[in-house]
Amino acid sequence: MQDKTILRNLIFPIVSYSGIGLALCERLLTHSDQIHLCLACRNMQRAEAARIALHTSHPGADISLLKVDVGSLQSVLEACKEIKHRYKKVDYLYLNAGIMPNPQISLKAFVNGLFSRKVISMFATGEGLLTQQDRVTADGLQEVFVTNVFGHFIMIRELEPLLCQPGNTSQLIWTSSSNARSSAFRLDDYQHTQGVEPYSSSKYASDLLSVALNRHCNKQGLYSSVTCPGLVMTNLTYGILPSFFWTLIMPIMWLIRIFTNTFTLTAYNGAEALFWLFNQKPESLDPRAKYHSYTSGLGNGYTKPQKMDLDEDTAETFYEKLLELEGRVRDKHKSQEDRR
């Protein structure tokens, strides 16, 4: 077990090997050498590549790796067991993992929107433009829901002893999206089994969950915040359209950025709000705000909060439904373990 006395902050991002997660790590390590950074990834080869890249620019950085697939309950439980063995406290838990499987785009809606006054909104939110094909995992859950929401929730629940400690504060920092829309979410189908926008539903669900967690956990010193990276060109974004298409429209997008602040475009700028929250006192933050990464026309990044349009009663009901689901899933998992 690592000696907590040598650690100023234990950072535990859920990151991929590239994109906003890696950009955030670079910014954190540039900002302070008094942190321990644990990269949690499902692909350890890529995680090691990320660690090598970070050590190249920050040779003295304290970086460890942990294997976890938040889409698998077994993987999450095993990872949390390892975390509790290694560490005495978690100061920051960045909930950055997310998938958008098999994205489909309406080319007609895209072309019409490209030459309309709604072009900025279309790119920023994907509303009316994107659908996805979800699937059921081995745990019997919808893949997008469990990866983007429920796996994180189980991790938070498992790590409560490390996150909620007397006299200390800890932060949960979610990566949400401008694509999070109430119209895609239903309490009676919160896994989005009957719709075609599981990504949008899952991001709205994480917004609801963050509000509920603040309601339940602030008194224990645990605070939750939601961020939006803006429109960032990551592997997830490039997967929506053929690469040649992005090559054609990128000059247009850079031009549009002069007139809108939501086109962050680079991973560095997309991580702005994630990094900004690291430097804030969590008690001073608005529990119902979404902290947006914005970029000026000159390319300078900044963070701005916007009140989320959601209902606290809906957030509470969703939280209770997650607790019920957690109980059923844990019982099923225990039953399977007993039979082995």
Q: Strand order, biggest sheet? A: 3-2-1-4-7-8-9-10
Strand content: 15-25%
Radius of gyration computed on alpha carbons: 20 Å
| Secondary-structure element pattern, one letter each | EHEHEHEEHHEHHEHEHHHHEEH
Portion of residues in helices?
Answer: 40-55%
How many strand segments?
10
How far the N terminus sits from the C terminus, by CA atoms, comes to 30 Å
Shape, principal axes of CA atoms: globular
Q: What is the SS-derived class?
A: alpha/beta
Describe the structure.
With 340 residues, this protein is an alpha/beta fold. The chain has 13 helices and ten strands. It has helices at residues 19-31, 44-57, 73-86, 107-114, 119-125, 143-158, 160-163, 198-217, 235-238, 243-256, 267-270, 272-278, 312-339; strands at residues 9-13, 35-41, 62-67, 92-95, 104-105, 130-131, 170-175, 222-228, 289-295, 301-307. The strands form two sheets. An eight-stranded mixed beta sheet has the order 3-2-1-4-7-8-9-10, sandwiched between helices. It has a two-stranded antiparallel sheet with strand order 5-6. Helix 8 links the parallel strand 7 and strand 8 (222-228). Helix 8 crosses helix 13 (312-339). The longest helix is centred in the last third of the chain and has 28 residues, at 312-339. It is globular and about 60 Å long. The two termini are 30 Å apart.
Keywords:
alpha/beta; 340 residues; 45% helix; 8-stranded mixed beta sheet; two-stranded antiparallel sheet
